[in-house]
What we know:
277 residues, alpha/beta, Rossmann fold, 11 helices, 43% helix
Amino acid sequence: MAKLTLEEWLARAENDRRFMENVRAIRRIPARPGEFAPYPEWVHPALKKVLADRGIGQLYSHQAKAVDLVRKGQSVVLVTPTASGKTLCYNLPVLQRILEEPETRALYIFPTKALAQDQMHEVHGLIGEMKADIKTYTYDGDTPDDARQAIRRQGHVVVTNPDMLHAGILPHHTKWQKLFVNLQYVVIDELHVYRGVFGSHLTNVLRRLVRICRFYGRDPVFICCSATVANPKEHAERLLERSVSLITESGAPAAARPSFSTTRPLSTGSSGSASPP
């Protein structure tokens, strides 16, 4: 059976009596063009060139706002749709600061190893194309013992997870003195995961992290990201126990799409009823 286009599927759905019994309204949300902003003047030419070579000749408006706030030392929580370029909102200011001050350190916290590996691939790619002397490492339960000392001593960007931060880094902070003395940025991705009991546990871990940072004379900037959270500012401030700037208006372009208001779960399982292409 040939696949239906979106318009063909919508037409079939609107003519399906059983399907429409569950629908109160159908809206067609028009496409939205992107909103762009130029790179800030402080962006290193090598970093700008690498991004331009990847087709990123300018920033989306939310990216420009985020990197500007981070540059000014303000913690932020960024909530924009999937594939809107949230990763660049922390990689750009972090790599920029390391290029300016090579002793700078950053801690990236992800809830799963798969996400951590994806982000490692992204930041490694940027660093490799710049040919910059910036060391990035993953520090988790699978990290070999003989590599851990090098990570503590040399890692500019350390990618980890809440459990490893709790059990492998904070209790041994004297071994991580190089990191804590120079820690400027803490990135927390997938913010919506940290809720309920898990969220309260992470709040305590972050409380310890901040206390250790202050012992070493640091007060890092926190950069939080999520695509799905209903009360991002309140949630982030409870988690971090500090004020954050909220960014929710995405400058990324969006395709046209339908939106259904339903009276109850759609009946799409029977033969003859509409099913998405």
